[in-house]
Specification:
about 575 residues; alpha/beta; Ubiquitin-like (UB roll); 3 domains; eight-stranded mixed sheet; six-stranded mixed sheet; globular
Length: about 575
Protein backbone atom coordinates (compact mmCIF):
# COMPACT_ATOMS: atom_id res chain seq x y z
CA UNK A 1 0.00 0.00 0.00
CA UNK A 2 1.54 3.29 -1.12
CA UNK A 3 1.29 6.32 1.18
CA UNK A 4 2.45 9.84 0.34
CA UNK A 5 2.39 12.70 2.84
CA UNK A 6 2.85 16.36 1.99
CA UNK A 7 3.32 19.23 4.44
CA UNK A 8 5.00 22.62 4.69
CA UNK A 9 7.20 24.02 7.45
CA UNK A 10 7.01 27.43 5.78
CA UNK A 11 5.66 29.17 2.69
CA UNK A 12 1.91 28.83 3.30
CA UNK A 13 0.05 31.96 4.34
CA UNK A 14 3.22 34.04 4.03
CA UNK A 15 5.59 35.57 1.52
CA UNK A 16 8.81 33.57 1.68
CA UNK A 17 10.23 30.96 4.08
CA UNK A 18 9.35 28.21 1.58
CA UNK A 19 10.11 24.72 2.86
CA UNK A 20 7.98 21.79 1.69
CA UNK A 21 8.31 18.11 2.49
CA UNK A 22 7.20 14.92 0.76
CA UNK A 23 7.17 11.73 2.83
CA UNK A 24 6.86 8.80 0.43
CA UNK A 25 6.60 5.49 2.24
CA UNK A 26 8.87 6.78 5.05
CA UNK A 27 11.43 8.30 2.65
CA UNK A 28 11.44 12.07 3.05
CA UNK A 29 12.65 14.75 0.62
CA UNK A 30 12.72 18.52 1.10
CA UNK A 31 11.66 20.98 -1.61
CA UNK A 32 13.34 24.38 -1.09
CA UNK A 33 14.54 25.89 2.18
CA UNK A 34 14.04 29.63 2.23
CA UNK A 35 13.78 32.62 4.51
CA UNK A 36 11.50 35.63 4.65
CA UNK A 37 12.37 39.19 5.49
CA UNK A 38 10.95 40.68 8.69
CA UNK A 39 8.47 43.52 8.98
CA UNK A 40 9.36 46.73 10.79
CA UNK A 41 8.14 45.70 14.24
CA UNK A 42 10.74 42.91 14.50
CA UNK A 43 13.50 45.23 15.62
CA UNK A 44 16.99 44.10 14.65
CA UNK A 45 15.82 40.79 13.15
CA UNK A 46 17.60 40.10 9.86
CA UNK A 47 15.63 37.08 8.68
CA UNK A 48 12.89 34.61 9.61
CA UNK A 49 13.49 30.94 8.83
CA UNK A 50 11.45 27.78 9.43
CA UNK A 51 11.61 25.92 12.73
CA UNK A 52 13.38 22.64 11.91
CA UNK A 53 12.54 20.80 15.13
CA UNK A 54 10.37 18.23 13.34
CA UNK A 55 13.07 17.51 10.76
CA UNK A 56 15.55 16.85 13.57
CA UNK A 57 13.35 13.94 14.64
CA UNK A 58 13.36 12.57 11.07
CA UNK A 59 17.07 12.94 10.22
CA UNK A 60 17.52 9.32 9.21
CA UNK A 61 14.52 9.43 6.86
CA UNK A 62 15.62 12.53 4.88
CA UNK A 63 17.09 11.39 1.57
CA UNK A 64 17.65 14.65 -0.34
CA UNK A 65 17.02 18.37 -0.70
CA UNK A 66 15.85 19.75 -4.07
CA UNK A 67 15.98 23.49 -4.83
CA UNK A 68 13.90 25.32 -7.41
CA UNK A 69 15.81 28.58 -7.93
CA UNK A 70 18.35 31.01 -6.48
CA UNK A 71 16.20 33.42 -4.47
CA UNK A 72 16.51 33.88 -0.70
CA UNK A 73 12.93 32.86 -0.07
CA UNK A 74 13.77 29.47 -1.59
CA UNK A 75 17.41 28.88 -0.61
CA UNK A 76 18.10 31.40 2.19
CA UNK A 77 17.72 28.87 5.03
CA UNK A 78 20.13 26.33 3.52
CA UNK A 79 22.98 27.15 5.98
CA UNK A 80 20.63 26.47 8.90
CA UNK A 81 19.15 23.35 7.30
CA UNK A 82 22.58 21.84 6.67
CA UNK A 83 23.41 22.20 10.36
CA UNK A 84 20.50 19.82 11.02
CA UNK A 85 20.24 17.68 7.88
CA UNK A 86 23.21 16.03 6.16
CA UNK A 87 21.32 15.03 3.01
CA UNK A 88 22.64 15.78 -0.50
CA UNK A 89 21.36 18.86 -2.37
CA UNK A 90 20.23 18.75 -6.01
CA UNK A 91 19.51 21.64 -8.34
CA UNK A 92 20.58 23.44 -11.50
CA UNK A 93 24.06 24.78 -12.17
CA UNK A 94 23.35 28.45 -11.43
CA UNK A 95 21.29 27.77 -8.30
CA UNK A 96 24.03 25.63 -6.78
CA UNK A 97 26.65 28.24 -7.64
CA UNK A 98 24.66 30.77 -5.60
CA UNK A 99 24.23 28.19 -2.80
CA UNK A 100 28.02 27.77 -2.66
CA UNK A 101 28.42 31.53 -2.36
CA UNK A 102 25.75 31.59 0.38
CA UNK A 103 27.54 28.86 2.35
CA UNK A 104 30.86 30.69 2.06
CA UNK A 105 29.22 33.90 3.24
CA UNK A 106 28.08 32.03 6.37
CA UNK A 107 31.57 30.65 7.02
CA UNK A 108 30.72 27.16 5.77
CA UNK A 109 32.92 25.24 3.37
CA UNK A 110 30.88 24.19 0.28
CA UNK A 111 33.32 21.34 -0.34
CA UNK A 112 32.10 19.63 2.81
CA UNK A 113 28.58 19.22 1.45
CA UNK A 114 27.11 17.09 -1.31
CA UNK A 115 25.99 19.62 -3.95
CA UNK A 116 24.83 17.91 -7.14
CA UNK A 117 24.01 19.54 -10.47
CA UNK A 118 21.32 17.65 -12.38
CA UNK A 119 20.28 18.15 -15.98
CA UNK A 120 16.65 18.49 -17.01
CA UNK A 121 16.79 15.12 -18.77
CA UNK A 122 18.15 13.36 -15.69
CA UNK A 123 16.24 11.51 -12.96
CA UNK A 124 17.56 10.97 -9.44
CA UNK A 125 16.48 7.54 -8.23
CA UNK A 126 15.49 6.56 -4.70
CA UNK A 127 13.97 3.35 -3.33
CA UNK A 128 10.30 4.25 -3.86
CA UNK A 129 10.39 7.22 -6.27
CA UNK A 130 12.40 9.28 -8.75
CA UNK A 131 12.90 13.06 -9.03
CA UNK A 132 13.63 15.31 -12.01
CA UNK A 133 13.60 19.04 -12.81
CA UNK A 134 12.00 20.96 -15.66
CA UNK A 135 12.86 24.54 -16.77
CA UNK A 136 10.57 27.41 -15.83
CA UNK A 137 10.57 31.14 -16.55
CA UNK A 138 11.51 33.43 -13.68
CA UNK A 139 13.78 36.41 -12.93
CA UNK A 140 16.92 34.32 -12.37
CA UNK A 141 18.55 31.84 -14.77
CA UNK A 142 17.83 28.12 -14.63
CA UNK A 143 14.75 28.27 -12.42
CA UNK A 144 13.11 24.87 -12.22
CA UNK A 145 9.99 23.01 -11.30
CA UNK A 146 10.41 19.70 -9.47
CA UNK A 147 8.75 16.40 -10.44
CA UNK A 148 8.49 13.49 -8.04
CA UNK A 149 7.57 10.24 -9.82
CA UNK A 150 5.71 7.77 -7.59
CA UNK A 151 3.79 4.59 -8.33
CA UNK A 152 0.55 6.57 -7.86
CA UNK A 153 1.48 9.38 -10.25
CA UNK A 154 3.71 12.44 -10.52
CA UNK A 155 3.73 15.18 -7.90
CA UNK A 156 4.74 18.49 -9.49
CA UNK A 157 6.11 21.38 -7.42
CA UNK A 158 6.01 24.62 -9.46
CA UNK A 159 6.89 27.84 -7.68
CA UNK A 160 7.58 31.34 -9.07
CA UNK A 161 6.99 30.87 -12.78
CA UNK A 162 5.37 32.48 -15.81
CA UNK A 163 4.97 31.40 -19.42
CA UNK A 164 6.52 34.51 -20.96
CA UNK A 165 8.59 33.39 -23.96
CA UNK A 166 10.18 36.77 -24.72
CA UNK A 167 13.13 35.82 -22.56
CA UNK A 168 16.66 34.51 -22.95
CA UNK A 169 17.53 30.87 -23.42
CA UNK A 170 18.35 30.34 -19.73
CA UNK A 171 14.89 31.58 -18.71
CA UNK A 172 12.59 29.66 -21.07
CA UNK A 173 9.91 27.16 -20.07
CA UNK A 174 10.07 23.79 -21.83
CA UNK A 175 6.49 23.03 -22.96
CA UNK A 176 7.55 19.73 -24.51
CA UNK A 177 8.83 18.46 -21.18
CA UNK A 178 5.61 19.52 -19.46
CA UNK A 179 3.67 17.47 -22.00
CA UNK A 180 5.87 14.45 -21.28
CA UNK A 181 5.19 14.83 -17.54
CA UNK A 182 1.45 14.89 -18.17
CA UNK A 183 1.67 11.64 -20.14
CA UNK A 184 2.88 9.83 -17.01
CA UNK A 185 -0.17 11.01 -15.02
CA UNK A 186 0.02 13.86 -12.51
CA UNK A 187 -1.34 13.04 -9.07
CA UNK A 188 -0.98 16.54 -7.57
CA UNK A 189 0.15 19.99 -8.63
CA UNK A 190 1.75 22.07 -5.87
CA UNK A 191 1.64 25.42 -7.62
CA UNK A 192 2.57 28.92 -6.49
CA UNK A 193 -0.14 31.40 -5.52
CA UNK A 194 1.61 34.81 -5.33
CA UNK A 195 0.12 36.04 -8.62
CA UNK A 196 -3.25 34.31 -8.35
CA UNK A 197 -5.16 37.58 -7.85
CA UNK A 198 -3.76 39.07 -11.07
CA UNK A 199 -6.14 38.67 -14.01
CA UNK A 200 -4.76 37.46 -17.35
CA UNK A 201 -1.25 36.34 -18.25
CA UNK A 202 1.90 37.61 -16.56
CA UNK A 203 2.80 40.14 -19.24
CA UNK A 204 6.10 40.73 -20.96
CA UNK A 205 8.05 43.91 -20.15
CA UNK A 206 8.23 45.35 -23.68
CA UNK A 207 6.68 48.61 -22.39
CA UNK A 208 9.41 48.83 -19.79
CA UNK A 209 12.10 48.22 -22.42
CA UNK A 210 10.68 51.10 -24.46
CA UNK A 211 10.69 53.41 -21.40
CA UNK A 212 14.29 52.49 -20.53
CA UNK A 213 15.46 53.13 -24.09
CA UNK A 214 13.77 56.55 -24.25
CA UNK A 215 15.13 57.54 -20.84
CA UNK A 216 18.68 56.55 -21.72
CA UNK A 217 18.52 58.37 -25.07
CA UNK A 218 17.24 61.62 -23.55
CA UNK A 219 19.60 61.70 -20.57
CA UNK A 220 22.57 64.03 -21.20
CA UNK A 221 24.38 63.35 -17.92
CA UNK A 222 24.74 60.43 -15.51
CA UNK A 223 22.06 57.74 -15.29
CA UNK A 224 21.59 55.96 -11.95
CA UNK A 225 19.27 52.93 -11.98
CA UNK A 226 17.96 51.60 -8.64
CA UNK A 227 17.15 47.86 -8.78
CA UNK A 228 16.64 44.78 -6.65
CA UNK A 229 19.71 42.57 -6.80
CA UNK A 230 17.69 39.33 -7.10
CA UNK A 231 16.17 40.24 -10.48
CA UNK A 232 19.00 39.23 -12.79
CA UNK A 233 16.81 39.32 -15.90
CA UNK A 234 16.11 43.02 -15.28
CA UNK A 235 19.79 43.66 -14.63
CA UNK A 236 20.60 42.05 -17.97
CA UNK A 237 17.89 44.19 -19.62
CA UNK A 238 19.49 47.39 -18.33
CA UNK A 239 22.92 46.19 -19.42
CA UNK A 240 21.66 45.39 -22.93
CA UNK A 241 19.98 48.77 -23.39
CA UNK A 242 23.02 50.64 -22.09
CA UNK A 243 25.37 48.75 -24.41
CA UNK A 244 23.15 49.44 -27.43
CA UNK A 245 23.57 53.16 -26.80
CA UNK A 246 27.31 52.91 -26.36
CA UNK A 247 27.30 53.40 -22.59
CA UNK A 248 29.45 51.69 -19.99
CA UNK A 249 28.19 49.84 -16.91
CA UNK A 250 29.04 50.17 -13.23
CA UNK A 251 27.38 47.92 -10.65
CA UNK A 252 27.12 49.13 -7.05
CA UNK A 253 25.90 46.76 -4.34
CA UNK A 254 27.70 43.80 -2.80
CA UNK A 255 24.89 41.27 -3.30
CA UNK A 256 24.33 42.12 -6.96
CA UNK A 257 28.04 42.18 -7.70
CA UNK A 258 28.36 38.64 -6.36
CA UNK A 259 25.27 37.45 -8.27
CA UNK A 260 26.43 39.14 -11.47
CA UNK A 261 29.96 37.77 -11.04
CA UNK A 262 28.54 34.25 -10.71
CA UNK A 263 26.24 34.74 -13.70
CA UNK A 264 28.99 36.29 -15.82
CA UNK A 265 31.54 33.57 -14.99
CA UNK A 266 29.00 30.92 -16.05
CA UNK A 267 27.87 32.73 -19.21
CA UNK A 268 24.38 33.69 -17.97
CA UNK A 269 25.17 37.42 -17.80
CA UNK A 270 26.84 39.13 -20.77
CA UNK A 271 28.99 42.22 -20.12
CA UNK A 272 32.00 43.02 -22.33
CA UNK A 273 34.90 43.45 -19.86
CA UNK A 274 35.99 46.69 -21.51
CA UNK A 275 32.55 48.20 -20.83
CA UNK A 276 32.49 47.44 -17.10
CA UNK A 277 33.65 50.37 -14.94
CA UNK A 278 35.10 49.79 -11.47
CA UNK A 279 34.70 52.98 -9.45
CA UNK A 280 37.34 54.52 -7.21
CA UNK A 281 36.55 56.37 -3.99
CA UNK A 282 35.66 60.02 -4.44
CA UNK A 283 38.42 62.52 -3.62
CA UNK A 284 39.57 65.95 -4.76
CA UNK A 285 40.65 64.65 -8.16
CA UNK A 286 37.91 62.04 -8.77
CA UNK A 287 34.13 62.60 -8.63
CA UNK A 288 33.01 59.57 -10.70
CA UNK A 289 30.90 61.88 -12.85
CA UNK A 290 31.02 59.73 -16.00
CA UNK A 291 28.24 60.80 -18.36
CA UNK A 292 28.85 57.76 -20.59
CA UNK A 293 28.11 55.28 -17.78
CA UNK A 294 24.93 53.73 -16.41
CA UNK A 295 25.28 53.11 -12.66
CA UNK A 296 23.28 50.17 -11.29
CA UNK A 297 22.51 50.71 -7.58
CA UNK A 298 21.29 47.35 -6.30
CA UNK A 299 20.36 45.60 -3.10
CA UNK A 300 17.65 43.70 -1.25
CA UNK A 301 14.39 45.24 0.04
CA UNK A 302 15.32 48.61 1.58
CA UNK A 303 18.96 48.69 0.46
CA UNK A 304 18.56 50.53 -2.88
CA UNK A 305 16.58 53.26 -1.10
CA UNK A 306 19.14 53.72 1.68
CA UNK A 307 21.96 53.81 -0.85
CA UNK A 308 20.21 56.49 -2.92
CA UNK A 309 19.53 58.58 0.20
CA UNK A 310 23.18 58.40 1.17
CA UNK A 311 24.22 59.42 -2.34
CA UNK A 312 21.75 62.33 -2.38
CA UNK A 313 23.04 63.61 0.98
CA UNK A 314 26.67 63.40 -0.14
CA UNK A 315 27.70 60.64 2.28
CA UNK A 316 28.49 57.90 -0.23
CA UNK A 317 32.13 57.26 -1.14
CA UNK A 318 31.43 56.24 -4.74
CA UNK A 319 28.53 58.36 -6.00
CA UNK A 320 27.26 61.76 -4.89
CA UNK A 321 24.10 62.80 -6.69
CA UNK A 322 23.89 66.17 -8.42
CA UNK A 323 20.86 67.99 -9.94
CA UNK A 324 21.79 67.01 -13.52
CA UNK A 325 21.55 63.26 -12.75
CA UNK A 326 18.69 61.06 -13.97
CA UNK A 327 17.50 58.59 -11.32
CA UNK A 328 15.58 55.63 -12.75
CA UNK A 329 13.75 53.64 -10.06
CA UNK A 330 13.31 50.06 -11.26
CA UNK A 331 12.56 48.99 -7.68
CA UNK A 332 8.88 49.56 -6.83
CA UNK A 333 8.30 49.56 -3.05
CA UNK A 334 7.41 46.19 -1.57
CA UNK A 335 5.66 45.46 1.74
CA UNK A 336 7.65 47.03 4.56
CA UNK A 337 9.61 49.50 2.38
CA UNK A 338 6.88 52.04 1.57
CA UNK A 339 8.02 54.63 4.13
CA UNK A 340 11.70 54.50 3.23
CA UNK A 341 10.80 54.66 -0.47
CA UNK A 342 8.67 57.79 0.04
CA UNK A 343 11.46 59.43 2.03
CA UNK A 344 13.98 58.58 -0.70
CA UNK A 345 11.80 60.13 -3.40
CA UNK A 346 11.46 63.28 -1.30
CA UNK A 347 15.23 63.57 -0.78
CA UNK A 348 15.88 63.22 -4.52
CA UNK A 349 13.17 65.72 -5.47
CA UNK A 350 14.61 68.20 -2.97
CA UNK A 351 18.03 67.78 -4.60
CA UNK A 352 16.51 68.68 -7.98
CA UNK A 353 17.58 65.56 -9.88
CA UNK A 354 15.25 64.02 -12.46
CA UNK A 355 13.38 61.05 -10.96
CA UNK A 356 11.57 58.40 -13.01
CA UNK A 357 9.59 55.80 -11.02
CA UNK A 358 8.53 52.54 -12.67
CA UNK A 359 5.23 51.16 -11.37
CA UNK A 360 4.64 47.49 -10.63
CA UNK A 361 2.10 47.30 -13.47
CA UNK A 362 4.79 48.10 -16.05
CA UNK A 363 7.21 45.43 -14.84
CA UNK A 364 6.98 41.74 -15.64
CA UNK A 365 5.64 40.20 -12.40
CA UNK A 366 7.55 36.86 -12.56
CA UNK A 367 4.62 35.10 -10.87
CA UNK A 368 1.86 33.08 -12.50
CA UNK A 369 -1.34 35.08 -13.05
CA UNK A 370 -4.78 33.51 -13.49
CA UNK A 371 -4.33 32.48 -17.12
CA UNK A 372 -0.84 31.11 -16.43
CA UNK A 373 -2.21 28.93 -13.65
CA UNK A 374 -4.99 27.69 -15.93
CA UNK A 375 -2.43 26.93 -18.63
CA UNK A 376 -0.45 24.86 -16.15
CA UNK A 377 -3.65 22.99 -15.20
CA UNK A 378 -4.28 22.28 -18.89
CA UNK A 379 -0.72 21.16 -19.63
CA UNK A 380 -0.39 18.83 -16.64
CA UNK A 381 -4.02 17.80 -15.99
CA UNK A 382 -3.39 17.08 -12.28
CA UNK A 383 -5.84 15.03 -10.25
CA UNK A 384 -5.40 17.32 -7.22
CA UNK A 385 -4.37 20.98 -6.91
CA UNK A 386 -2.67 22.29 -3.78
CA UNK A 387 -2.03 26.08 -3.70
CA UNK A 388 1.38 26.83 -2.13
CA UNK A 389 3.86 29.69 -1.85
CA UNK A 390 1.95 32.86 -0.98
CA UNK A 391 0.01 34.79 1.61
CA UNK A 392 -3.35 33.30 2.55
CA UNK A 393 -5.42 35.71 0.42
CA UNK A 394 -3.45 34.59 -2.63
CA UNK A 395 -3.78 30.92 -1.71
CA UNK A 396 -7.52 31.46 -1.40
CA UNK A 397 -7.63 33.23 -4.79
CA UNK A 398 -5.78 30.25 -6.28
CA UNK A 399 -8.19 27.83 -4.59
CA UNK A 400 -11.23 29.69 -6.01
CA UNK A 401 -9.62 29.83 -9.45
CA UNK A 402 -9.23 26.04 -9.45
CA UNK A 403 -12.91 25.68 -8.56
CA UNK A 404 -13.86 28.04 -11.40
CA UNK A 405 -11.68 26.01 -13.77
CA UNK A 406 -13.72 22.88 -13.00
CA UNK A 407 -12.10 21.19 -10.00
CA UNK A 408 -14.34 20.34 -7.06
CA UNK A 409 -13.60 20.90 -3.37
CA UNK A 410 -12.51 17.29 -2.91
CA UNK A 411 -9.70 17.74 -5.44
CA UNK A 412 -8.58 21.25 -4.43
CA UNK A 413 -6.79 21.35 -1.09
CA UNK A 414 -6.11 24.47 0.98
CA UNK A 415 -3.80 23.89 3.96
CA UNK A 416 -1.64 25.80 6.46
CA UNK A 417 1.95 25.33 7.58
CA UNK A 418 2.29 22.13 9.59
CA UNK A 419 -0.90 20.55 8.25
CA UNK A 420 -0.32 17.16 6.62
CA UNK A 421 -2.28 15.82 3.68
CA UNK A 422 -2.01 12.12 2.89
CA UNK A 423 -2.45 10.32 -0.43
CA UNK A 424 -3.15 6.60 -0.04
CA UNK A 425 -3.07 4.60 -3.25
CA UNK A 426 -3.67 7.74 -5.28
CA UNK A 427 -6.61 9.04 -3.23
CA UNK A 428 -6.52 11.82 -0.66
CA UNK A 429 -7.28 10.98 2.97
CA UNK A 430 -9.64 13.53 4.54
CA UNK A 431 -8.23 13.08 8.07
CA UNK A 432 -5.38 15.63 8.28
CA UNK A 433 -2.50 15.28 10.72
CA UNK A 434 -0.16 18.06 11.88
CA UNK A 435 3.58 18.40 12.50
CA UNK A 436 5.45 20.92 14.61
CA UNK A 437 6.24 24.18 12.78
CA UNK A 438 7.04 27.78 13.55
CA UNK A 439 9.53 30.61 13.08
CA UNK A 440 13.15 31.08 14.03
CA UNK A 441 14.22 34.74 14.18
CA UNK A 442 17.77 35.33 13.00
CA UNK A 443 19.90 38.27 14.12
CA UNK A 444 23.24 38.41 12.31
CA UNK A 445 24.09 34.79 11.56
CA UNK A 446 22.13 31.56 11.75
CA UNK A 447 23.60 30.71 15.15
CA UNK A 448 21.79 33.59 16.86
CA UNK A 449 18.08 32.97 17.43
CA UNK A 450 16.20 35.99 18.79
CA UNK A 451 13.55 35.02 21.33
CA UNK A 452 10.46 36.93 22.46
CA UNK A 453 12.19 38.36 25.53
CA UNK A 454 14.92 39.95 23.42
CA UNK A 455 12.35 41.37 20.99
CA UNK A 456 10.38 42.84 23.88
CA UNK A 457 13.52 44.46 25.26
CA UNK A 458 14.33 45.90 21.83
CA UNK A 459 10.82 47.29 21.60
CA UNK A 460 11.24 48.91 25.02
CA UNK A 461 14.61 50.31 23.98
CA UNK A 462 13.10 51.86 20.86
CA UNK A 463 10.24 53.39 22.84
CA UNK A 464 11.57 54.14 26.34
CA UNK A 465 15.37 53.83 26.13
CA UNK A 466 17.56 52.42 28.90
CA UNK A 467 19.13 53.46 32.19
CA UNK A 468 22.38 51.99 33.51
CA UNK A 469 23.42 52.08 37.18
CA UNK A 470 27.18 51.61 37.64
CA UNK A 471 28.42 51.18 41.21
CA UNK A 472 31.62 50.15 43.04
CA UNK A 473 31.46 48.17 46.28
CA UNK A 474 33.80 46.24 48.55
CA UNK A 475 31.85 43.01 49.10
CA UNK A 476 34.34 41.66 51.65
CA UNK A 477 34.23 44.73 53.87
CA UNK A 478 30.56 45.47 53.02
CA UNK A 479 31.35 49.05 51.99
CA UNK A 480 29.73 51.29 49.33
CA UNK A 481 32.74 52.95 47.75
CA UNK A 482 30.99 55.72 45.83
CA UNK A 483 27.67 57.01 44.64
CA UNK A 484 26.47 55.10 41.60
CA UNK A 485 27.02 56.59 38.17
CA UNK A 486 23.72 56.75 36.33
CA UNK A 487 23.72 56.74 32.53
CA UNK A 488 20.56 57.29 30.48
CA UNK A 489 20.07 56.90 26.73
CA UNK A 490 16.74 57.60 25.06
CA UNK A 491 14.99 58.04 28.42
CA UNK A 492 15.61 61.35 30.26
CA UNK A 493 18.35 63.97 30.42
CA UNK A 494 19.88 63.32 33.83
CA UNK A 495 21.13 66.87 34.51
CA UNK A 496 17.58 68.19 34.27
CA UNK A 497 16.21 65.50 36.60
CA UNK A 498 18.30 65.75 39.77
CA UNK A 499 15.43 64.58 41.99
CA UNK A 500 15.06 61.39 39.96
CA UNK A 501 18.82 60.78 40.25
CA UNK A 502 18.74 61.27 44.04
CA UNK A 503 15.84 58.84 44.39
CA UNK A 504 17.61 56.18 42.28
CA UNK A 505 20.72 56.62 44.46
CA UNK A 506 18.59 56.19 47.57
CA UNK A 507 16.97 53.02 46.21
CA UNK A 508 20.41 51.61 45.37
CA UNK A 509 21.79 52.45 48.84
CA UNK A 510 18.80 50.93 50.65
CA UNK A 511 18.94 47.65 48.73
CA UNK A 512 22.75 47.46 49.06
CA UNK A 513 22.64 47.90 52.83
CA UNK A 514 19.99 45.15 53.08
CA UNK A 515 22.30 42.82 51.19
CA UNK A 516 25.25 43.79 53.41
CA UNK A 517 23.20 42.78 56.45
CA UNK A 518 22.99 39.22 55.12
CA UNK A 519 25.61 36.57 55.92
CA UNK A 520 26.22 36.02 52.18
CA UNK A 521 25.52 38.37 49.29
CA UNK A 522 23.03 36.86 46.86
CA UNK A 523 24.22 38.62 43.71
CA UNK A 524 21.23 37.59 41.63
CA UNK A 525 18.70 38.83 44.19
CA UNK A 526 20.81 41.96 44.75
CA UNK A 527 20.78 42.97 41.08
CA UNK A 528 17.18 41.94 40.42
CA UNK A 529 16.02 43.97 43.43
CA UNK A 530 17.77 47.08 42.16
CA UNK A 531 16.31 46.65 38.72
CA UNK A 532 12.77 45.96 39.96
CA UNK A 533 12.62 48.81 42.48
CA UNK A 534 14.14 51.36 40.09
CA UNK A 535 11.79 50.34 37.26
CA UNK A 536 8.81 50.58 39.60
CA UNK A 537 9.85 54.06 40.77
CA UNK A 538 10.51 55.31 37.23
CA UNK A 539 7.14 54.10 35.98
CA UNK A 540 5.38 55.79 38.90
CA UNK A 541 7.15 59.09 38.18
CA UNK A 542 7.30 59.08 34.36
CA UNK A 543 4.80 56.42 33.15
CA UNK A 544 7.65 54.96 31.07
CA UNK A 545 9.45 51.62 31.33
CA UNK A 546 13.10 51.94 30.31
CA UNK A 547 15.33 48.88 30.48
CA UNK A 548 17.32 49.18 33.73
CA UNK A 549 20.79 47.62 33.75
CA UNK A 550 22.60 47.40 37.11
CA UNK A 551 26.40 47.04 36.78
CA UNK A 552 27.95 46.18 40.17
CA UNK A 553 31.74 46.11 40.45
CA UNK A 554 33.35 44.33 43.40
CA UNK A 555 36.72 46.06 43.60
CA UNK A 556 38.29 43.35 45.77
CA UNK A 557 37.66 40.57 43.27
CA UNK A 558 37.57 42.67 40.08
CA UNK A 559 34.22 41.05 39.51
CA UNK A 560 31.66 42.80 37.31
CA UNK A 561 28.04 41.72 37.76
CA UNK A 562 25.34 42.98 35.44
CA UNK A 563 21.83 42.09 34.44
CA UNK A 564 20.60 42.75 30.88
Amino acid sequence: MSQIKFFALGGLGENGKNLYCLDIDKELIILDAGLKHPSGELLGVDAIVPDLTYLETRKKDIKAIFLSHAHDKNIGAIPLLLSTVKAPIYSTNFTLAVVKDLLSENNLNPEQYSLNVIKYTQRVKFKNFEVSLFPTTHSVPESAGICVYTEDGVIVYATDYTFDQNVGVYYKTDFHQLTKIQEEGVLALLSESSGASQIGHASSDYKLTHLIRNTFQKATNRIIVAMYSTELSNIQMIINEALKLGKNISIIGRKAQRMVDIGESMGYIQIPPERLVNLKFIDETNKNEFNDTVFLVTGERHEPFFMLQRMAKGYDRLIQLIPSDTIFFLAPPIVGTEKIAAKTYDVIYRLGAKLIKVSKTMMAPFHAATEDLKLMYGLLRPKYIVPVSGEYRYQLAHYNLALEYGYDEEHTVLIDNGEVITFSNGEIDNSHDTVMNGNVLVDGNFESDVNDVVLKERELLSQDGFLMIIANIDARERIILNKPEIVSRGFIYMKDNEEVVKQIEAIYETITNKQFDQKYIDWKTYKESIRFEVQRYLYKETKRKPIVIPVLIDTQSDKVCKVL
